[in-house]
């Protein structure tokens, strides 16, 4: 029975195909009959009457069949076009027009009017008089306090510890129900320059508040993909006490610039190149990826890189003018998802 | 079981506690942070608007309790008085707790929107793919190397260039000079690869400067790095500035090409000295570079260095290349002569210089 069924199904399919072919010919004939004005048409070409799409076929199997056939045809045409292009290029040789650059999201990014021109005087003036000026003039060296939200769990604690090894001159203190607003005056009194608060939710760190202390801006980030040291594959040994270099990639807009300066001011001004350690803040599409590497130059054109230390990605949520004050603070920039997340080509950092 | 009437003292629905079923009643109520004593007398039962009279109680427990007792002593039950006092205490506790909550940290609970979270995580993954972090880091580091941010640390890479250049230039110059240069090369190479050949440097400096400038220019064309360089130029420039401060130099030297600025200074000094005397200066480099070697654990594939350090194929291939070069220049006899003469010494001057700069 089954065999018969199979046979019949296969034969049925064949009959379907035959039918399809027959239909095509009929339709082509019909089209040919109808549109004699168009001129010579090959009678066996799979030409449907105008306005007919494959989706209008009611029979699912037939429809599927026609669709797969159409797809194959499209693929063939595409391949043929590619080959043709390639031949043309080879034929032209040097005269060939340059290859078209593929469109990427970063290519198609909506031009942000606040992108900073490297020679911009206004920006340079702003930066020489903003809250980080004292750091960049080497008048102050950073001293950082790392803390968490109340009652931190294991992962957060370990992340704090590892961060403190990455950032030189940093101290970890755990909060016991103290309000941030009470902590901040104490920090200022003890000459801390920066405060990092790692917020925790459901036993994983999920937020980062970076506050520059004397009266500097506070940035609130959303943290994700946190990898502690032991979770990083093929990592090097623990970082040494040397002061790392910093790499800040892709901070183009005015906002990005100020955030980049915030990060730069976390690390002391005199990197010890002997240590060969580098902390990277790479901004891509508003996501800032933090990595900590050890590098070694194998030649003038080759570098070996080894990842140590924790890694995480952060996304800016808000930038507030003074020290941490979520209610009455003056917000320079706030991420509004409904307005800002609509366009996939528009980035703010 | 529980009474919904707002004037109930205990909150239980019982005959004794019901404010509607008792013509003589009293409660204590918290209204906008103030505690009031409410009293009900039968005289006003027919006028609901003035049925309940209220007086403000002080937040001082003693005075409040005195007042309650005195007003309710003759008209109300003792149990009612006690209930009022108890409620008063409870309200005070409530006030204390709300005050604490307001003054202390206020945890803002934000809702987690599934769709937004999902979208964000996917965009993050795609951004990570597009970022090519390691490549960019490598690019940036090489950029820094070529613009001279690292100064004297990585001179060994420039040596290859210098050698090649110097070979071509040697042919143009005097034989005597050539001989000394060759000797210099031999000696340094035989000891350790990364010796400074200041003579060669002097000659090759222009070429190197040209090269580095070219390299720098090439790197500037990378778009991202333009912006980056500005941001962390603060770091780099400061280092370069330090280097420049140490050395009294021509204004012609670029700030970025710090390494060369050092060479320029030393060139001025050495122009006067004999070529042979320069061996001592080379010795300085020797020790300096020995220290570097320890720090870096890089093996500069020479016969003297242990083969145990070599592990990777890259280095082996390089070793082959370098060996070829060495064969051209090594002259062990000359080295022995120098050793006997006591001219190959370790001196610590160079190291101190480095510390100053860093």
TrEMBL record, chain A:
Entry keyword annotation includes Transit peptide: no
Zinc found in the keyword field: no
Record keywords, A-Z: Ribosome biogenesis, RNA-binding, rRNA processing, rRNA-binding
Principal subcellular localisation of the protein: nucleus
PROSITE patterns in the record: BRIX (PS50833)
Short name of one Pfam family: Brix
Compositional bias per record (Basic and acidic residues), positions renumbered to this chain: 87-97
Region (Disordered): 1-55, 70-105
PANTHER family found in the cross-reference section: RIBOSOME PRODUCTION FACTOR 1, U3 SMALL NUCLEOLAR RIBONUCLEOPROTEIN PROTEIN IMP4
Role according to the record: May be required for ribosome biogenesis.
Name of the protein this chain belongs to: Ribosome production factor 1
Name of encoding gene: RPF1
Automatic annotation (TrEMBL), chain B:
Boundaries of every Ribosomal eL28/Mak16 domain copy: 1-93
Biased composition (Acidic residues): 177-188, 202-308
Pfam families: Ribosomal_L28e (PF01778)
Gene3D superfamilies xref list: 3.30.390.110
GO cellular component: nucleolus; preribosome, large subunit precursor
Basic residues composition bias: residue spans: 313-323
GO biological process: maturation of 5.8S rRNA; maturation of LSU-rRNA
Keywords, in A-Z order: Nucleus
Keyword Plastid: no
Positions of transmembrane segments: none
Protein's cellular compartments: Nucleus
InterPro entries, A to Z: Ribosomal_eL28/Mak16
Region (Disordered) location: 168-325
Signal peptide: none
Protein's recorded name: Ribosomal eL28/Mak16 domain-containing protein
Lineage summary: Eukaryota, Metazoa, Chordata, Craniata, Vertebrata
